Amino acid sequence: MHKELRVAAYAVCVRDGRMLLARWVARDGGKRWTLPGGGTDHGEDPYDTVVREAEEETGYTVEPVALLGVDTTRETHPRRLGAAVDLHGLRIVYEARVTGGELRHEIGGSTDLAAWHRLDEVPALTRVGLVDVGLGLWRDRPATGRVTGVPEHPADA
Fold this sequence. Notes:
Elements: E1 2-12, E2 14-15, E3 18-25, E4 31-34, E5 37-39, H1 46-58, E6 60-78, E7 84-101, E8 111-118, H2 129-140
Parallel strand pairs: 1-7
Antiparallel strand pairs: 1-5, 2-3, 3-4, 3-8, 6-7
């Protein structure tokens, strides 16, 4: 089985009791809320990735202000011609603050909406597990940079 590593960087933006999320559109058409962010380009620093991806997905310019932690996932995904890939995702999570721009939705990307959600409403959203990881890191600020006890959701963005 082919092995693949995907490194990505995400932003936890909380302002006035609300969290900024982007709605991810899965390959099967399902839609779930996720943290703004995504995969690093070859040679790109994850700090620059989170700034770029947040702007692409939400319209906002963000400034990472703290490294909250690192999360990993591991899944098997089908590929063309019956092959499969063992995907190891390495997700770097930053706290970020909005410094400019205007809220807008991404067009032609992996997300279709961006919105602020009240923190007390987030648990009721259809979301990927990364949202819970990000909130846990933001709230608890563990010295290890690792949240425990958050259930994994398959096919997280």
